[in-house]
Amino acid sequence: MINHLFATILFLPLAYAMDKLDKTVNQDLVSRLKLAATVYDRHNILTKDEDWIYDFNSAEPTDSFKPGSVKNANAATFPAMVGHGMTIAQLKLGPCAMLPAHYHPRAANMVVAITGNTTTWMVNENAVRTVSTTLTPGKMTIFPTGSIHSMQNNGCDDAYLISALNSEDTGTMNIVNGLWSIRDDMIRAAFGNPTLDVKTTGKDIPEVGTGSTYGSDECMNRCGISKGKT
Ligand SMILES: *[C@@H]1O[C@H](CO)[C@@H](O)[C@H](O)[C@H]1NC(C)=O
Question: What pLDDT score does 2 carry?
Fold first, then answer.
């Protein structure tokens, strides 16, 4: 009993971290596709028409506009993507939903708006200016590989966007969550503020999810939205 409890506590962080990543739906299939010598061989593995369809309408993983969600079609979630060097993501941003500042270490990211009014921010590297765009239907922007970017649906209606990334394994790093994982005294030094209360300041940082968080108070007040369960 005690041992069991101990094991649960020990492995909880790992299980928890795993839950925040795309789940590999069929490792065996991915392995066979990666080892296949030819396209012909891959066709003999992906024998059914259904093997060639990824359904963004499926309920799993989490799919909602409250506050929002990101759904990736990549080698992990859709094995037929193996070998094509791309990820396609569906972004659903409810009113005022935000994707917190993050970067993808292995992919440039093109985002096109289908509906809504979403503002984006992108910082490519030190000393370059921050690029901000407003994505209304039909408009697209570029987040270069490794650039820090963030977006918020500034409208009170849902925003639907499609994102294309040039890797099957883009990786994602949320800046604030990453920063808050280093030592408190180093964070204080980075802020140039020896009295910064790191624990208190960081206690409400939303978890790294595959979804989004609620955005600015200004938008929330304007649209009359209260924070529900994320
Ligand atoms: C989009 O929102 C911005 C404010 O964030 C506003 O200035 C602009 O007029 C809006 N565009 C449309 C087409 O609604």
Answer: 47
Residue nearest to atom 12 of ligand 1 (CA): 117
Please give the pLDDT value at position 45: 97
pLDDT (0 to 100) of residue 62 = 67
Q: How far is the CA of 98 from the centre of ligand 1 (A)?
A: 16
Is the pLDDT at 90 greater than 90? The verdict is yes
pLDDT of 210 reads 58
At 50-60, the pLDDT tens digits run 999 999 988 66
Lowest mean pLDDT among 31-35, 80-84, 209-213, 221-225: 209-213
The protein residue whose alpha carbon is closest to atom 5 in ligand 1 is: 154
The pTM (predicted TM-score) of the whole model is 0.85
The verdict on the CB of residue 221 being under 6 Å from ligand 1 is no
Query: How many angstroms does the Cα of residue 117 sit away from the middle of ligand 1?
Result: 6
Q: Provide the residue range defining the domain that includes 52.
A: 4-172+209-222
The answer to whether position 100 is within a domain reads yes
Domain presence at residue 163? yes
Alpha helices in the chain (DSSP H): 2-19, 27-35, 39-45, 175-179, 184-191, 198-202, 217-223
Phi, psi (rounded to 5 degrees) for 124? -85, -40
In a domain, 160, yes or no: yes
Residue 228: which residues within 8 A CB-CB, separation 6 or more?
66, 67
- If you search the block for the tokens 């079609």, which residue do you land on? 73
> What CATH number is given to the structural domain containing 127?
2.60.120.10
**CA–centroid distance, residue 135 to ligand 1 (Å):** 9
What distance in angstroms lies between residue 67's CA and the mean position of ligand 1's atoms? 20
Look at residue 56 and tell me if it is in a domain.
yes
Decide: helix, strand or coil at residue 89. Answer: strand
